[in-house]
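Run log, item B.
One chain of 115 residues. Sequence copied directly from the ordering sheet:
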Amino acid sequence: MWLFCKSGFFSAVQHNSQPELIHVRARFASDLERLCQAHGVTTAVKHTPGHDYAYRMDFPREVWANIVKAEAIDYDNFKAAVHDNSARDHAYMGCWLALRNAQEKTAKDDLNKQA
């Protein structure tokens, strides 16, 4: 699962040897720290510089489910809510643009198939 939210960007997967845990990875330690602070979870971020995601933390499944369920949607425009001109902001916009371009290509391909 990829989760883009005001706290940050996270990649969440089942832990490879402890299925009761969700292994959450982030590009920035501050994203995990902010997420934990927002949800009253003790921060236990591990720095893993040799891996694809430099920061990781494990959550019990129930805790992770509650975080995802409770992550506040208190905005009517996500891009505006996270816009701060940071590297993460630019990365979010790059993802948004890549998905928009894929949507447009798919729509164009669909039109060509119908013609």
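Observations after the first pass:
- Residues 77-115 form one domain.
- The mean pLDDT is 92.
Flagged for discussion on Thursday.
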